[in-house]
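[audit] Reproducing an earlier prediction to check determinism. Same input, same settings, fresh worker. If the tokens differ from the archived copy the diff job will pick it up downstream; this log only records the rerun itself.
[audit] input (694 residues):
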Amino acid sequence: MVRNLKTHQWFGSGAIVAAAFVAMNASAWGQEATPLRMQAIAGLTTGVHVAPAHATVPQGASVRFVQSFPSSGPVGSGLGSGLVWVGAEEVSRTDSESVAECFFNESGTYDVAARMVTGSGRVEWQNSCRVSVVSTPVDRIGVENVDGYTRVIHVTQGTPFNVAYDYFSREDSIAGLQTVEPANTLRRLDGRRSRRAQSKSIREGEVFVTSVDRTITLNAAVNMRIFSDVVEWRVDGRPFALGQSAEFRFATPGRHTISVGPPRNARELTLDVYSVEITSHINGTDFIRQGVPVTFEAVTNPPGFEEYITWIATTKFGTMSTVAGAGRTFTVRFDDTVGDDPDNGRFQWLGVRADNVAFGQDQKAGACILPDAGCEDALGLRILPTACFDLGGSFFGALTTCAADCEPAAACCLPDGTCTETGEEWCTGRSGTWQGVPVECATKDVVVIDHAAQAAGGCGHRVETVLIWGLGGGPAGSCDPVLGDRDFWKTAYDAQGTCLTFGSASVPAIPSGFFGTGSDPFSGTVCFLGASLEIPGAGIADTVILRTGPDPFAPCDPIGANQTVPIEIVELSLRSIDPISVGFNSGATTEQWDVAIGLSPGGQAAGSVLTASKTHCNGGTFDTTLNIDGEAAFTQLGSQGAPLTLDLGTQVLQSAGGPWVHQIGPVNAHPPGCSGMVYGLNDPVPGADCPVCP
């Protein structure tokens, strides 16, 4: 048993000066040193924490320190052989970490350090902790009081835009920390300003409530302040942090118990966390008019917390009344919210926030194409989209004018596969293909593709949606004399995309620990859109399907027949619309991860088929059944590390009613030797372009 070497005390202010954390250059290992950690101290803490720069422990305590190190040290040194402990005795070592123990039997001040030393004796880096040992029994250590803090929201009718916008745009929720039991003593927002208290002393038996994504700072008053650095915070019984203060933020709704102090003398509070959804308005769909009172409504998950919802309104120009409120509904009127911006011309921005969610309206004026009236921009003054829609017009685009930009509108196929109705010059200036008057984009999930100009990203023929795992028809197929016919598909644009539900009967839940130590299990729905394959000839496609059998029909086969051919999927590239939020330690912290869907490297299941029906002389419809062995890849936002992968198993995906044609236009558009059937294209007028048969 080795006791720490006692070190000198620093005097001057009368207090012992804490040793600073040191992380020296670790270039020999190509990475920074990991922090020194401290295991549980009997009667005082319950888990492993990053060791503070200074820690006070009771006399007689036994403390274990843990130092992780790179898996390889300098050449010839062996795995971690350069790690040396000062003031502690090593009790175990693996290829990745070393554990040392200290027995503090006498009062005083001690230094513990883990040093990485090269063969020449040079210290590459060092982590240290100064420990003060006092003759205080652990059962005398306790927490006298806990205060809760949230950032004060203070807005008035004359609040400057930048101040109000700061509340609106912050990542942190604007919800307060409010008391439910035994009485709500914290005053809520009224229509003029915030009167919520900045801090609240927590009493036994009180239940607090706030929304998700709200940062709460809790401060513990320890009866013996010298132990403040080692007072432990726990969430639902699990160790969370050390120190007098701690910040908490929960990403998902639920009830949590937060405790602080030695387990036998801990203080506890109960926190209910809810999330908010604005149910009355959708961003980009519902527009707010000036001078008209508008009422916003919201609900909470779980239900029953609507009375605690906090609202604020803000705008860049003009005024709004009221600017703040609370409860299920909030009524506000915006006036004179259109102004001039040096970069954007006529411009409007306004927003309404409800705790963790927001509705924003961002409009830049432009030209408007009115029914039977041509282009209109109010004598050179651009019109906002809302005014254009009110007149039944088609908005030409932000910052456009009739004199400079406006032309007769028609469908424009853009390189990303979307269709918008614009003038020819605007369309071609953005590498699109203009379809000409009177062609229109019928629905948002219609993609316009030119089969003959597929590789160049052109467009010209309407392709209806074909639901193959949410996929829509894309660039028509290519022919290979050995591999067969390949059909290229583009995931149809849709606000919800293609969705998978982890934890459902067909897709496994993501287990705990998958994203790292302490990660919570993940179940939920993730929605995807296509990511271009970026392979020659695929254009904007994100999926490739191979027909391994012959065409079901020859051009002159009779109408009314049905045929089935084998197919298989050979390429797939989908990306999540939004990252998923992964919780750690029961939601105490969160990380954001992107999700990609591709094909399993182990090959694909057999049994996929395409059944075609010939309904007119130039084509018909087809149904598919695809057996897909998929793989999900998860990448943490901002991380340069390799993605984590998860096998999705075999998914059976079906579609019905997809179109196909023999040929496009009066002349066969296929290169010599390719298929006589093009999947994903409608014949605009069945029979008009029929093959010439004997």
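[audit] rerun output stored. Observation attached for the diff report: The radius of gyration is 33 Å.
[audit] end
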